[in-house]
């Protein structure tokens, strides 16, 4: 068996219930392109979780959900305000800019979360014909730095956005982790607090693949079926994404998987804190643990365990847990860290 990794939650495999759902859906023939019963049922479940008035479309990747969703909000001369650390800015190979022809306006943050003040400072050029025009704000929940927005913080941003003729998008690749950590239903962090457009992640919470683009504002979704097709994300065998979403959104599996990953991150933090040579660098709110590790040690640890160096300059690393991480995996990893440090110094 491959060793468990702490690189990302998408290094994990497929949750057995989700894999079973794929197998169960592999019976006979079904209508293609989303005309099947699985897709209808999955959409009904999304409506249960997020409200009746949503429009939902599935994509294969989170990058596609972000880029195609956002492209339906703006013209090329308009722009999105997001944190400098936002996945759309740092890890999508410029897909947003290439696909939409629009600009991202990035703001520096301490913890991955943008505030109303950060946004206000970017609105000085509205109406100036020489400048791109902000049209939407994109926030990530949980953020790329493992932090979470409270419902109140999101509401503040959405109130400000709507008062200033801006839409609010949420990159919810890890929305399940956020909702589980804050112990609230998915709607409390989205529909109830004024999100217009959501990229909802399934892959990082135990699915094989599949994300959803959810419009809370139906005026924005009227052309999305064409946008998705032109964007090459209309999967013909859609039932195999839908069957996975049915499993994830039934019996609280989304929450159980996320709670498990989150609690194992807290456990990892607690164990690592016992090692004096390592310093936890950020608050652990969901399933990411950030720490400063001596640069001499990092490659030695990486010989056995995959994980990312978040910041080469400060020697900060990121360790992520997933639905299938176990306490034993963590104890083994922590023992290896201790051993490696003892041998290196
Ligand atoms: C915050 C966030 N958004 C979006 C994505 C995009 O996912 P994908 O790799 O499926 O395109 C990721 C993946 O790591 C992510 O962490």
List descriptors.
2 domains, seven-stranded mixed beta sheet, four-stranded antiparallel beta sheet, globular, alpha/beta, Aspartate Aminotransferase, domain 1
The total of beta strands comes to: 11
Q: Any idea what the shape is?
A: globular
**Which stretches of 5+ consecutive residues score pLDDT under 50?**
none
Largest sheet: 7 strands, mixed
Q: Strands across the major sheet, in which order?
A: 1-7-6-5-4-2-3
Count the DSSP helices: 13
Cα end-to-end separation: 32 Å
The level of helicity is 25-40%
Q: List the secondary-structure elements in sequence, H or E.
A: HHEHEHHEHEHEHEEHHHEEHEEH
Second rung of CATH, namely the architecture of the largest domain: 3-Layer(aba) Sandwich
Could you say what the CATH topology of the largest domain is called? Aspartate Aminotransferase, domain 2
Which small-molecule ligands are present, each listed once? pyridoxal-5'-phosphate
| CATH 4th-level superfamily of the largest domain | Type I PLP-dependent aspartate aminotransferase-like (Major domain)
């Amino acid at each position: 068996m491959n060793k468990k990794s702490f690189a990302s939650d998408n290094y994990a495999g497929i949750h057995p219930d989700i894999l079973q759902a794929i197998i169960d859906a592999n019976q006979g023939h079904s209508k293609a392109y989303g005309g099947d019963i699985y897709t209808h049922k999955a959409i009904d479940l999304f409506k249960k979780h997020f409200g009746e008035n949503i429009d939902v479309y599935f994509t294969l990747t989170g990058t596609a959900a972000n880029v195609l969703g956002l492209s339906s909000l703006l013209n090329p001369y308009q722009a999105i305000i997001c944190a400098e650390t936002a996945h759309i800015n740092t890890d999508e190979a410029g897909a947003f800019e290439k696909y939409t022809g629009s600009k991202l306006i990035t703001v520096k943050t301490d913890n991955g979360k943008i505030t109303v003040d950060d946004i206000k400072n970017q609105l000085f050029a509205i109406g100036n014909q020489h400048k791109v025009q902000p049209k939407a704000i994109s926030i990530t929940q949980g953020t790329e730095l493992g932090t979470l927005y409270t419902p109140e913080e999101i509401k503040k941003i959405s109130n400000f956005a709507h008062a200033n003729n801006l839409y609010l998008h949420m990159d919810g690749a890890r929305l399940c982790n956020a909702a589980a950590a804050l112990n609230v239903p998915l709607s409390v962090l989205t529909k109830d607090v004024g999100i217009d457009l959501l990229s909802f992640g399934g892959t990082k919470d135990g699915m094989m693949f599949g994300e959803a683009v959810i419009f809370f504002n139906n005026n924005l979704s009227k052309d999305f079926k064409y946008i998705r097709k032109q964007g090459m994300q209309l999967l013909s065998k859609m039932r195999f994404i839908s069957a996975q979403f049915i499993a994830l959104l039934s019996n609280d599996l989304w929450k159980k998987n996320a709670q498990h990953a989150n609690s194992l991150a807290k456990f990892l933090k607690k164990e690592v804190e016992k090692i004096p040579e390592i310093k936890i660098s950020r608050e652990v709110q969901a399933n990411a643990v950030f720490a400063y590790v001596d640069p001499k040690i990092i490659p030695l640890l990486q010989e056995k365990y995959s994980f990312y160096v978040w910041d080469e300059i400060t020697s900060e690393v990121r360790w992520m847990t997933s639905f299938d991480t176990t306490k034993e995996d963590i104890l083994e990893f922590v023992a290896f860290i201790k051993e490696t440090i003892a041998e290196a110094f």
